[in-house]
Amino acid sequence: MARYRGPRLRVVRRLGELPGLSRKSPRKAYPPGQHGQARKKKSEYGVRLEEKQKLRFNYGLTEKQLLRYVKKARRAGGSTGLSLLQQLEMRLDNTIFRLGFGPTIPAARQIVNHGHITVNGRVVSIPSYQCRPGDVISVRDKAVSRTLVEANLQFPGLANVPNHLELDKGKLTAKVNGIIEREWIALNINELLVVEYYSRKA
Fold first, then answer.
1. Which of 96, 158, 175, 195 could pair with 166 as two cysteines, CB 3.0-4.6 Å apart?
2. How far out from the chain centre does Cα 60 lie?
3. Which among 197, 158, 202 is positioned nearest to 58, based on CA atoms?
4. Across 27-31, 47-51, 106-110, least confident range
5. How many domains does the chain have?
């Protein structure tokens, strides 16, 4: 299944607020489609599916990628749900979004893909790169890169930079000081339901 490239507000109306996908708020408070206003009782499967979709659309993953992250989280030990969220939050594209270098995760992914970002002095153009404690993330010393990021920093997607990141706005550099804690994860989600959804697949 390919990455979703359709209307984002349609997804937000169906699943609720997704800070990584879009900064806009829908004008209508009910799901899209002909039967959007009909209140249906969701099955247990439907509730789990919705939580899984929130995770997938917010972080811009394909089904195959998300399944791979779930399997990796299982092998990591400890809480599978927390490990899954931490892996997704420590992706380079999400870290760029959290620093305010990009207004949304898709925009941050594009910034990484176009080679505007360096990690420990080397250009990294892979959005799924896993940031580790001690990594130094910088904007390339090119006029185009710096102008783009400076414009985005004026209107960041989220108000606060998480405490595991240290940002120097003047130099456009940041340092990863640790792994993100659960309370800093902006997405309103029950990760245990996602793990339950994949329990038969992973």
1. 175
2. 7
3. 158
4. 27-31
5. 2
Per DSSP (E only), the strands in the chain are: 117-119, 122-123, 136-139, 165-168, 173-176
Q: What is the pLDDT, as a whole number, of residue 158? A: 72
Q: Do the domain assignments include residue 2?
A: no
pLDDT of residue 35: 64
Among residues 1, 161, 21, the alpha carbon closest in space to that of 10 is found at 21
Give the CA angle between residues 13, 15, 19 to the nearest 5°. Answer: 85
One domain, residues 83 and 98: no
Same-domain pairing of 16 and 80: yes
Residue 4 reports pLDDT greater than 80: no
> Within a domain: residue 202?
no
Task: Report d(CA 159, CA 151) in Å as an integer.
Answer: 15
CA distance 150 to 139: 10
- pLDDT bracket for residue 84 (50, 70, 90): very high
Give residue 199's identity as a one-letter amino acid code.
Answer: S
Q: Which domain holds residue 170?
A: 91-178
In this structure, are 138 and 191 located in the same domain? no
In a domain? residue 20: yes
